[in-house]
Amino acid sequence: MGIKWNEFFVTGDPLIFASQIGIALTLVGALAGLTYFKKWNYLWSEWFTTVDHKKIGIMYILLGVVMFLRGGIDGLMMKGQTAVPENDFLNAQHYNEVFTTHGVIMILFVAMPLLIGLMNFVIPLQIGARDVAFPQLNALSFWLTVSGAALFNISFIIGGSPDAGWTSYFPLAGKEFSPGIGNNFYAVALQIAGAGTLMTGINFVVTVLKMRTKGMTLMKMPMFTWTSFITSIIIVASFPIFTVALALMTFDRTFGTHFFTISGGGMDMLWANLFWLWGHPEVYIVVLPAFGMLSDIISTFARKTLYGYKSMVISIVMISVLSMLVWVHHFFTMGNSAGVNSFFSITTMAIAIPTGVKVFNWLFTMRKGRIKFTTAMLWALAFVPNFVIGGVTGVMLAMAAADYQYHNTLFLVAHFHYVLIPGVVFPIFAGLYFWWPKMFGYMLNEKIGKWHFWLFVVGFNVTFMPMFFLGLDGAVRRAYTYSAETGFGPLMMISAVGSVILAAGFAALVYNIYWSARHADRNIGNDPWDARTLEWATATPVQHYNFASLPEVTKLDAFWHMKKNNELQPLTEDEVEEVHLPSNTWIPIYMGVVFGISGFLLVFEWTIAAGVAALGILAGLAFRSFDYDEGFHVHKDEVFETESKWRKGANKGVKNHVS
Amino acid sequence: MSAKVNAALPLEYQTEQNRMNILGFWVFLGAEIVLFATLFGVYGVLGERYAGGPTQKDIFIVKDVMIQTFLLLTSSFTMGISIFEMRRSNIKGMLMWLVFTLLLGGGFLFMEVREFIHYVHEGATMQTSAFLSSFFVLLGTHGLHVTIGIGWAILLIIQILQRGLTPVTARKAFIFGLYWHFLDVVWIFIFTFVYLQGLVM
């Protein structure tokens, strides 16, 4: 067991060697910089130990953006390799590793942190609460996600990357065919991050059920809150399945059991079933909050109440139920009976119905609205047609008989990129542009934003549209190269060029963040978009206690109606109450660290050492049990002073941002 | 977050944060049900794949399993009495029944470990066959939960001794009670679908 010491660091590949040096230099640079500018204390007390949902949300978003860079570089490497036939930029093994990490990182460490980050920041504000139900648990969720992400990412310089695809199907992912430790990184890192996600799910179910402000009944919640709530329920219902699947994978690989092996009575298809029992709901876990953000953004910039609110709610509930009943469509060709395939074909097609309802609702919301073409709205507009292409090709793939033709081709790859990029990434960008002023007190530049938008959307279509046709011509996915006779060359080249445009779009976002942080106007008022929901009733950036006095809600689009009815009177002294908030704590980050160490040792199959390190986890739990910190109170006078300050200056000399 | 106390309710439900914690724990138990359901599903799929190794009938010892079941079911009963005593603000009675619960839980664990050792001596290890892999992991997950529960309850007892019954300690004890009863329910399923079904298969 274990690994030879001379294999500890991955060696022999110039690309990886360069990144090892790069990472070492960045690390040293960051540590030196922090020490030189004396920022350690600030980082520790303001960020690392925080339990404030807003700061945790921002850290999640930062993690997502950084991981987007990593996953994006993986994608570019694949496109570079397949741009021309018989290319030898990456060898087969390296290509396998790159498409595996690309998939895992983009889903679990980009889409999830960005969405959970936005949920964290926005949901408590939208429901008029001062934090989530369990602020410490929230911090723990975040640090476990970081821990999992870090563990997964070091695999390519230490020990070797997983290489069995993001689905890690057995028997390929088993010890017999993947003898290295690469796939252990997959099993352990995702286990740790998954535990964090499960806790987030529990936290938000309780937050939405218990912490809504006075008058906000379930049917008066903003749509983003609704979708986040349903998403949280799906998380609670599906992540434990993945927990078990990954644990069994670890047992098979590390302790020699026979769950998914060919020998000893194991069953490889059991893995495929368990994986997709989680994996398909996971698709809706990432897409539903995105739908919710779009609903709020479209209704804000169309300046109308969301069309068909009730049917929206019914649709998301239906989607969440159906999401649990479609998993077999991921392996129609793997020997199910015709009856089983037909059943899952029908359930899969049925998902198009509630999704279609939602698309029409968005269109009808915009109908006769006075649409403001802000960057956030542009993303929402681009979402509709692009996502429909993804959806329609999804219905094509849902036909089990026809799936025999498309399965395992680039047609499928194009399909799910057309679902996940317009359906998740576009809304995330929309959400970032939309809520950025609330997070940081300045807006992202609209002009650079439009560069970002056009480059990204055009690049996206140029990259993935050719892949539909390549797939129909028979180009298989996950193949590291192809011969010139196949005729795939020209379309592959177009696709590769598209990916460069796509990357330029992302670079524009990064530049926009940098530019806006330095030059953007800080005097933007608390409601720059003339928005409709409660988060815009707070100061910009939001005070640490969110609301001076908890608002009372009578209608959907509460803030909009408050503005129309002139209910936003200046705060009087007796309305302000003392605010109780939880204290910072070191336990979550400590837990992240010990989980990371223990996980790392387990990856290398040093089980005894991993067990010893796991005692640190138990110690953390025990500390938490004896921690009776009651939090602290913000005094009335302090609240009143802060409130008067921003309310007096609010919206004075503010330029109109939505014309 | 608010410290408003509603004294008309039982101690553990008096503050809003307590009510949220209890609801949160119910949601967590929902996730636990999915976790165990998946393990049962795996056992259901692999339970008759022996790969030439022993079957359920070859290894199960009815008497020992009956003792385990008796110990764990009784511990659920004593847990209930402990919470009943807590509601009557009788700390002494509460702790006494809680200690009984843990002793019974410890007895269950002792029997389970003995059972596992016995199987391993007979050559039935988790590497032997898919049936035994799924058997050991399902039972082991339950046993691990019981072990963690015992450790948790000991921390709880110390806190109650230090602080007496407050809304916070009462809530912690109540939540532990939920957890303990849940483990009992899982055991009933294990007893039925693993042991009893194994013996009639």
Automatic annotation (TrEMBL), chain A:
GO BP: any one term: electron transport coupled proton transport
- Which ranges does the record mark as transmembrane? 15-37, 58-78, 98-125, 137-158, 185-209, 229-251, 313-332, 344-364, 376-402, 414-436, 448-471, 491-514, 590-623
| Gene Ontology CC terms | plasma membrane; respiratory chain complex
- The keyword Transport is annotated on this UniProt entry: yes
Task: Please write the reaction equations for the catalytic activity of this protein.
Answer: 4 Fe(II)-[cytochrome c] + O2 + 8 H(+)(in) = 4 Fe(III)-[cytochrome c] + 2 H2O + 4 H(+)(out); 2 a quinol + O2 = 2 a quinone + 2 H2O
Q: Where would I find the Cytochrome oxidase subunit I profile domain in this sequence?
A: 38-554
Kindly state which keywords UniProt assigns to this record, in alphabetical order.
Cell membrane, Copper, Electron transport, Heme, Hydrogen ion transport, Ion transport, Iron, Membrane, Metal-binding, Oxidoreductase, Respiratory chain, Translocase, Transmembrane, Transmembrane helix, Transport
Write out the pathway annotation from the protein's UniProt entry. Energy metabolism; oxidative phosphorylation
The record's annotation in InterPro entries points to:
Cyt_c_oxase-like_su1_dom, Cyt_c_oxase-like_su1_sf, Cyt_C_Oxase_1, Cyt_c_Oxase_su1_BS, QoxB
List localization entries. Cell membrane
Membrane topology field: Multi-pass membrane protein
Chain segments annotated as coiled-coil in the UniProt record:
none
Q: What class of enzyme is it?
A: oxidoreductase
The terms under GO molecular function for this entry are: copper ion binding; cytochrome-c oxidase activity; heme binding; oxidoreductase activity, acting on diphenols and related substances as donors, oxygen as acceptor
- Please state the Enzyme Commission number of this protein: 1.10.3.-
**Function (record text):** Catalyzes quinol oxidation with the concomitant reduction of oxygen to water.
Which family does the record assign?
Belongs to the heme-copper respiratory oxidase family.
Q: What is this protein called?
A: Quinol oxidase subunit 1
UniProtKB/TrEMBL annotation, chain B:
Q: Which GO terms describe its biological process?
A: aerobic electron transport chain; ATP synthesis coupled electron transport
Segments forming domain Heme-copper oxidase subunit III family profile: 23-199
Subcellular localization: Cell membrane
Query: Domain of life here?
Result: Bacteria
Q: What is its EC number?
A: 1.10.3.-
Q: Which SUPFAM superfamilies match?
A: Cytochrome c oxidase subunit III-like
Alphabetically, the GO molecular function entries are: cytochrome-c oxidase activity; oxidoreductase activity
Tagged with keyword Transmembrane: yes
Q: Coiled-coil ranges per the record?
A: none
- What keywords does the record list, in alphabetical order? Cell membrane, Membrane, Oxidoreductase, Transmembrane, Transmembrane helix
Reaction(s) the record says it catalyses: 2 a quinol + O2 = 2 a quinone + 2 H2O
The membrane topology term of the UniProt record is: Multi-pass membrane protein
Sorted alphabetically, the Gene Ontology cellular component annotations on this record are: plasma membrane
InterPro entries membership = Cyt_c/ubiquinol_Oxase_su3, Cyt_c_oxidase-like_su3, Cyt_c_oxidase_su3-like_sf, Cyt_c_oxidase_su3_a-hlx, QoxC, Ubiquinol_oxase_su3_dom
Segments passing through the bilayer: 21-45, 65-84, 91-111, 131-161, 173-196
Q: What CDD domains does the record tag this protein with? A: Ubiquinol_oxidase_III
Query: What is the residue range of the signal peptide feature?
Result: none
Looking up Pfam families in the UniProt record yields: COX3
The keyword Cell membrane belongs to this UniProt entry's keyword annotation? yes
| Known function | Catalyzes quinol oxidation with the concomitant reduction of oxygen to water.
**Sequence similarity:** Belongs to the cytochrome c oxidase subunit 3 family.
Q: What is this protein called?
A: Quinol oxidase subunit 3
